[in-house]
Amino acid sequence: MRLVLIVCAAVGLAACSAGSTAPSSVSAGTTLSLAGTWSGTLASSNNDTEPITIVVTQSGSDVRGTWQGMSVSWTGNVAGSVDASTFDGQFTFSGTAANGTVCTGTAAVTGPATSSSMTLTSAAGVVGAACPAPLPLAITIDVRRQS
User: Fold this and answer.
1) Which pTM was predicted?
2) Segments in the chain forming alpha helices (H)
3) How many CA atoms lie within 13 A of 7 on its CB side?
Protein backbone atom coordinates (compact mmCIF):
# COMPACT_ATOMS: atom_id res chain seq x y z
CA MET A 1 0.00 0.00 0.00
CA ARG A 2 2.84 2.37 0.82
CA LEU A 3 4.30 1.81 -2.68
CA VAL A 4 0.94 2.65 -4.30
CA LEU A 5 0.76 5.95 -2.39
CA ILE A 6 4.32 6.90 -3.39
CA VAL A 7 3.63 6.14 -7.07
CA CYS A 8 0.34 8.12 -6.98
CA ALA A 9 2.09 11.10 -5.35
CA ALA A 10 4.90 11.04 -7.94
CA VAL A 11 2.45 10.83 -10.86
CA GLY A 12 0.37 13.66 -9.39
CA LEU A 13 3.39 15.94 -8.96
CA ALA A 14 4.59 15.19 -12.49
CA ALA A 15 1.16 16.00 -13.92
CA CYS A 16 0.97 19.31 -12.07
CA SER A 17 4.43 20.43 -13.13
CA ALA A 18 3.83 19.50 -16.78
CA GLY A 19 0.82 21.84 -16.96
CA SER A 20 2.85 24.93 -16.09
CA THR A 21 4.60 26.61 -19.03
CA ALA A 22 6.49 29.87 -19.21
CA PRO A 23 5.21 32.53 -21.62
CA SER A 24 6.80 32.36 -25.04
CA SER A 25 9.04 35.22 -26.10
CA VAL A 26 9.77 36.85 -29.48
CA SER A 27 12.65 35.19 -31.24
CA ALA A 28 15.96 36.97 -30.67
CA GLY A 29 16.79 36.35 -34.34
CA THR A 30 13.97 38.57 -35.68
CA THR A 31 15.15 40.93 -38.45
CA LEU A 32 13.41 44.26 -39.01
CA SER A 33 12.49 45.14 -42.61
CA LEU A 34 13.90 48.51 -43.74
CA ALA A 35 13.33 48.09 -47.49
CA GLY A 36 11.68 51.11 -49.07
CA THR A 37 12.01 54.87 -49.40
CA TRP A 38 12.86 57.05 -46.41
CA SER A 39 13.02 60.84 -46.11
CA GLY A 40 14.16 63.20 -43.42
CA THR A 41 17.25 65.16 -42.49
CA LEU A 42 21.01 64.87 -42.19
CA ALA A 43 22.31 67.24 -39.50
CA SER A 44 25.95 67.85 -38.67
CA SER A 45 27.82 70.02 -36.20
CA ASN A 46 29.51 72.06 -38.94
CA ASN A 47 27.00 72.25 -41.82
CA ASP A 48 23.38 73.27 -42.28
CA THR A 49 20.74 70.58 -41.80
CA GLU A 50 20.09 68.91 -45.15
CA PRO A 51 16.86 67.25 -46.33
CA ILE A 52 17.68 63.77 -47.66
CA THR A 53 16.04 60.76 -49.30
CA ILE A 54 17.25 57.18 -48.81
CA VAL A 55 16.13 54.19 -50.93
CA VAL A 56 17.11 50.76 -49.61
CA THR A 57 16.70 47.11 -50.48
CA GLN A 58 17.19 44.28 -48.05
CA SER A 59 18.08 40.60 -48.13
CA GLY A 60 17.86 39.04 -44.66
CA SER A 61 19.75 41.36 -42.35
CA ASP A 62 21.84 42.85 -45.22
CA VAL A 63 20.74 46.39 -46.16
CA ARG A 64 21.96 48.19 -49.33
CA GLY A 65 20.86 51.36 -51.05
CA THR A 66 21.49 54.93 -52.12
CA TRP A 67 20.86 58.34 -50.62
CA GLN A 68 20.88 61.93 -51.85
CA GLY A 69 20.70 65.41 -50.43
CA MET A 70 17.83 67.55 -51.58
CA SER A 71 19.36 71.04 -51.35
CA VAL A 72 23.10 70.39 -51.85
CA SER A 73 24.79 67.86 -54.09
CA TRP A 74 25.71 65.16 -51.54
CA THR A 75 24.92 61.63 -52.71
CA GLY A 76 26.16 58.18 -51.83
CA ASN A 77 25.55 54.58 -50.95
CA VAL A 78 24.23 52.89 -47.83
CA ALA A 79 25.44 49.49 -46.65
CA GLY A 80 24.94 47.71 -43.36
CA SER A 81 22.98 45.26 -41.31
CA VAL A 82 19.84 45.37 -39.22
CA ASP A 83 18.53 43.21 -36.40
CA ALA A 84 15.24 43.54 -34.53
CA SER A 85 15.85 47.17 -33.49
CA THR A 86 19.24 48.55 -34.64
CA PHE A 87 20.88 49.53 -37.93
CA ASP A 88 24.67 49.42 -38.05
CA GLY A 89 26.45 50.41 -41.24
CA GLN A 90 28.15 52.95 -43.44
CA PHE A 91 27.15 55.86 -45.64
CA THR A 92 29.46 56.94 -48.48
CA PHE A 93 29.50 60.62 -49.37
CA SER A 94 30.27 62.24 -52.72
CA GLY A 95 29.74 65.88 -53.63
CA THR A 96 31.20 68.61 -55.78
CA ALA A 97 32.54 71.74 -54.07
CA ALA A 98 32.00 75.22 -55.55
CA ASN A 99 35.45 75.10 -57.20
CA GLY A 100 34.66 71.79 -58.97
CA THR A 101 36.56 69.52 -56.58
CA VAL A 102 34.78 66.20 -56.03
CA CYS A 103 34.83 65.48 -52.31
CA THR A 104 34.34 61.93 -51.03
CA GLY A 105 34.32 60.11 -47.72
CA THR A 106 32.56 57.59 -45.53
CA ALA A 107 30.73 57.73 -42.22
CA ALA A 108 30.13 54.76 -39.93
CA VAL A 109 26.60 55.10 -38.50
CA THR A 110 24.52 53.24 -35.95
CA GLY A 111 21.24 53.72 -34.17
CA PRO A 112 17.75 52.60 -33.35
CA ALA A 113 15.45 51.58 -36.18
CA THR A 114 11.77 50.66 -36.36
CA SER A 115 9.51 49.86 -39.30
CA SER A 116 8.68 53.58 -39.56
CA SER A 117 11.75 55.55 -38.36
CA MET A 118 15.53 55.53 -37.98
CA THR A 119 17.84 57.83 -36.05
CA LEU A 120 21.44 57.11 -37.01
CA THR A 121 24.47 58.86 -35.57
CA SER A 122 28.17 59.11 -36.31
CA ALA A 123 30.31 60.94 -33.75
CA ALA A 124 33.29 61.08 -36.13
CA GLY A 125 31.21 62.16 -39.12
CA VAL A 126 32.56 61.86 -42.66
CA VAL A 127 36.16 60.75 -42.99
CA GLY A 128 37.73 61.43 -46.37
CA ALA A 129 40.35 63.24 -48.42
CA ALA A 130 40.94 66.97 -48.10
CA CYS A 131 38.05 69.01 -49.46
CA PRO A 132 37.57 72.79 -49.88
CA ALA A 133 34.06 72.40 -48.39
CA PRO A 134 33.78 71.12 -44.80
CA LEU A 135 32.97 67.41 -44.59
CA PRO A 136 30.06 66.85 -42.17
CA LEU A 137 31.07 66.13 -38.55
CA ALA A 138 29.00 64.72 -35.65
CA ILE A 139 26.21 63.47 -37.95
CA THR A 140 22.62 62.67 -37.05
CA ILE A 141 20.43 61.14 -39.76
CA ASP A 142 16.75 61.24 -38.80
CA VAL A 143 14.39 59.65 -41.36
CA ARG A 144 10.83 58.31 -41.67
CA ARG A 145 9.58 55.59 -44.02
CA GLN A 146 7.69 56.92 -47.06
CA SER A 147 6.79 53.66 -48.79
Assistant:
1) 0.78
2) 2-18
3) 4
Sign of CA dihedral 27, 140, 76, 66: positive
Neighbours of 14 (CB within 10 A): 9
25-60: pLDDT as tens digits: 334 568 899 999 999 999 999 989 999 999 999 999
Distances (CA, A) of 95 to 36, 41, 105, 109, 136: 24, 17, 9, 19, 12
Q: Are 62 and 70 in contact (CB under 8 A)?
A: no
> CA 60, CA 30: separation in Å to the nearest integer?
10
107: pLDDT strictly greater than 70: yes
Domain boundaries, given as residue ranges, for the chain: 36-145
CA distance 27 to 114: 16
The CA–CA distances, whole Å, from 122 to 13, 31, 91, 109 equal 57, 22, 10, 5
What does the alpha-carbon distance between residue 138 and residue 128 come to, in Å, rounded to a whole number?
A: 14
Q: What is the pLDDT of residues 73-103, one digit of tens each?
A: 889 999 999 999 999 999 999 998 889 899 9
Q: Say how far apart CA 139 and CA 147 lie, in whole Å.
A: 24
